[in-house]
Specification:
With 387 residues, the protein is an alpha/beta fold. Helix content is 32%, strand content 23%. Strand 12 (296-301) and strand 13 (305-311) form a beta hairpin.
Length: 387
């Protein structure tokens, strides 16, 4: 393999991140279902940083025959798959069978059955051959989210164990606007519509930040409030992790001779709200996650940028949190897409030994949380049986 990774892009996402990683990635081909879509992308401002010679060297492919022709090229080492949700698993397997490394868009599949099948196929037939498959979940690579996870330290740091959390993701998707107007999103052939497509991001944030305190059980209700974002646009849920318990904390205090019921160990619990339906809420493109620990609170706000704040009366906690304990909090730019693409390239090229934050089984858990919420209808769902 050359010093650079020759990449084919299937779809229209990730172009800026690919170009930014030009020290390790060469974009040599672009594929779409229609020839006009490829031509439009190659001529767009997204590729304006390339010279005319470099732009014209990008080979264009379209249709089923075009994909097969692209995958036959020995000089293409890897593909980035950013196609409609329902089509991706089939294409991922095609790419792996052709001997290509794969970075595919989230969610990992339209449902858990599909996701399990492709993971098992990959682990059985392709992983042992050295082929890399990663799922492009940018929230798992955001520096702000990783900082929040670092502060909580899976309950082992000064903040202490997680007691409970609140996760919200509320986005206004106006009818006919950019993301709603996309045909496969407008009339989805997969469960949950925008809830599945968008909220796996928030699920990933919860997974990364809370680690072992992430939920193992969930009870949820779904609803439809605005018909243009069907089949459902809102989820409210209560989650818990009964496999973890936390003893009471705080200063010693004399207990009554007969202790009230409930004193003893407790489990981390959480409130979750996902909504694409609020017509009066300004468009919000990231989660709001508040995690309450034994010795303080971590607040994470995200979107185009990220802010992490720590609130505590414990001086040791505030000292260890540094800038995050200030009134403004600690700010981070949004770099998740760039990081996931660059780290994928470095992994294929065997440059460095970074933590893999794009494991398919991590993305499987994100999908499991969403599917559990969408199918619960007020009944308890055991997430451990889904993954």
């Amino acid at each position: 393999m050359s010093q650079k990774l020759n990449v084919a892009l299937l779809g229209a996402a990730h172009v800026p991140a690919i170009l930014k990683a030009s020290d390790t990635i060469s974009l040599v081909a672009i594929y779409s279902r229609s020839a006009s879509s490829v031509e439009k992308l190659v001529a767009s401002d997204e590729l304006s940083s390339l010279s005319q010679e470099a732009r014209s060297s990008i080979k264009q492919y379209s249709g089923d025959d075009g994909l097969q022709e692209l995958l036959k090229r020995d000089d293409i080492h890897a593909v980035i798959v950013a196609l409609p949700i329902s089509r991706q698993p089939e294409v991922i397997l095609q790419c792996l069978k052709a001997g290509k490394h794969v970075l595919s868009e989230k969610p990992i599949g339209k449902d858990l059955k599909t996701a399990h099948e492709i993971i098992e196929k990959y682990e059985k037939d392709f992983a042992s051959n050295g082929l890399i498959w990663r799922v492009a979940e940018n929230f798992a690579h955001e520096h702000g989210i990783l900082r929040a996870s670092e502060l909580i330290a899976n309950g082992s740091g000064p903040l202490g164990p997680v007691l409970f959390y609140e996760l919200k993701m509320i986005i206004h998707v106006a009818s006919g606007k950019k993301y709603h107007a996309t045909e496969w999103r407008n009339v989805p052939d997969y469960q949950g519509g925008f809830l599945l497509d968008g909220c796996v991001h928030a699920a990933a944030a919860l997974r990364v930040v809370t680690a072992d305190a992430k939920p193992t059980q969930v009870v949820a209700f779904k609803s439809l409030n605005r018909t243009h974002v069907g089949p459902h646009d809102t989820i409210v849920a209560i989650a818990s992790n009964p496999s973890l318990t936390t003893s009471p904390h705080g200063p010693e205090f004399p207990q009554p001779s007969v202790a009230p019921q409930g004193i003893g160990k407790s489990m981390p619990t959480g409130n979750i709200t996902f909504s694409f339906a609020n017509p009066r809420t300004p468009e919000f493109r990231g989660p709001s996650l508040t995690v309450t620990c034994a010795n303080g609170v971590v607040r994470l706000e995200g979107g185009k940028a990220w802010t992490v704040k720590v609130e505590s009366e414990d001086e040791e906690v505030k000292k260890s949190a540094g800038a995050a304990a200030s009134s403004e909090g600690e700010a981070f730019p949004s770099v998740g897409v760039e990081e996931e693409v660059a780290q994928f390239a470095r992994a294929v090229l065997k440059q460095g030994d970074e933590v893999n934050r794009a494991e398919p089984r991590g993305a499987l858990w994100d999908l499991a949380l969403l599917e559990a919420c969408l199918t619960s209808d007020g009944k308890l769902v055991d997430l451990t049986k889904l993954v």
